[in-house]
Recover the amino acids of this structure.
């Protein structure tokens, strides 16, 4: 689903339903000495002075380069914006999950916050910069790809799986981290948009 920056700004200001969803999850970094306030959203979003990136992004972006998944049978093309130094949604995740930028590094930090504490440690959630052992991301997933690989099915409009399984990017046709994860909702752990029971998540896109 495409949202304009204006709509995002409005929902950021009025979204209270989201608050309860993030609060108390692994994405609630408040009260950990990283930020003196009880703010939950601030590690990722700011209402003003954001990096000029949807959705009002506040976490300092990584400058790392990544090894990406490849295989002889992979047919999907890379998204137009490369993963390096890009502002795509996966890079937002990787700004914490590649382990190179402190969790507390924000563009707009509360005045007494210490900007330097807390890199993500050596936990399994730290994906590092080698993404070659992870599901491909930043790939174009469109009708042309499905025509080349008939074992794929688009989670498109009218499909039972919308709106939760989203494709991203300028053409709204890219698989990114947030196609499978919702960073605001840990009710299906870990932050999944659909359960992996019976591999339901995978079977949305893969006809296997
Ligand atoms: C750990 C990082 C993180 C935290 C904390 C976080 N968000 Fe987000 N948010 C994201 C990312 C990444 C996206 C873009 C991907 C997406 O749309 O799911 C996003 C997108 C959004 C959007 C636009 C798209 C949508 O899903 O509606 C809104 C509005 C939003 N966040 C509001 C909030 C609010 C309000 C809070 C605090 C309660 C919050 N977020 C906390 C990472 C975060
Ligand atoms: C502001 C930093 C930050 C951003 C941005 C962020 N995360 Fe996280 N995420 C964390 C931290 C911290 C943890 C907990 C790591 C640990 O285990 O100590 C975490 C944990 C997770 C987990 C594992 C939860 C569990 O219960 O094991 C998933 C999945 C995840 N994040 C996905 C994402 C995705 C996808 C995005 C982007 C849409 C994203 N995160 C953006 C900081 C972030
Ligand atoms: C095709 C779907 C899919 C995509 C795309 C995807 N993930 Fe995941 N991710 C999963 C599933 C399913 C799990 C839970 C099973 C597992 O741990 O392997 C998971 C687990 C995780 C975990 C928890 C790992 C752990 O052991 O604590 C993190 C963190 C995470 N993903 C982050 C990301 C980030 C960041 C991206 C983008 C770079 C991403 N994911 C892209 C499906 C996906
Ligand atoms: C949002 C759609 C989507 C979801 C959900 C999804 N995938 Fe994928 N996956 C893709 C696309 C698109 C490709 C690229 C296929 C191609 O190039 O032919 C891909 C590629 C792969 C590949 C590599 C294929 C190759 O030829 O090297 C594997 C393996 C895979 N996915 C497994 C999974 C598993 C397991 C899950 C569930 C945890 C999953 N996928 C969930 C869309 C998805």
């Amino acid at each position: 689903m495409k949202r304009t920056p204006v709509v995002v700004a409005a929902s950021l200001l009025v979204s209270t339903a989201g608050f309860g969803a993030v609060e108390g999850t692994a994405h609630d970094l408040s009260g950990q000495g990283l930020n003196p306030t009880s703010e939950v959203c601030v590690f990722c979003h700011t209402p003003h002075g954001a990096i000029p990136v949807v959705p009002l992004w506040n976490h300092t972006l990584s400058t790392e380069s990544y090894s990406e998944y490849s295989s002889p049978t992979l047919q999907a093309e890379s998204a137009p914006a490369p993963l390096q130094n890009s502002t795509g949604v996966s890079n937002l995740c990787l700004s914490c999950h590649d382990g190179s930028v402190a969790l507390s590094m924000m563009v707009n930090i509360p005045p007494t916050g210490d900007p330097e504490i807390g890199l993500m440690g050596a936990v399994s959630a730290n994906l590092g910069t080698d993404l070659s052992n992870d599901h491909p991301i930043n790939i174009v997933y469109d009708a042309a790809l499905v025509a080349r690989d008939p074992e794929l099915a688009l989670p498109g409009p009218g499909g039972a799986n919308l709106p939760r399984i989203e494709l991203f990017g300028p053409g709204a046709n890219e698989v990114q981290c947030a196609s499978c994860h919702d960073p605001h909702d840990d009710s299906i752990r870990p932050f999944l948009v659909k359960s992996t029971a019976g591999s339901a998540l995978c079977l949305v896109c893969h006809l296997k």
Q: What stands out?
A: The pocket of heme C (ligand 4) is lined by residues 71, 73-76, 135-136, 139, 141, 149, 152, 155, 165, 175, 179-180, 196, 201-202, 204-206 (CB under 6 Å). Residues 1-20 have pLDDT under 50 and may be disordered.
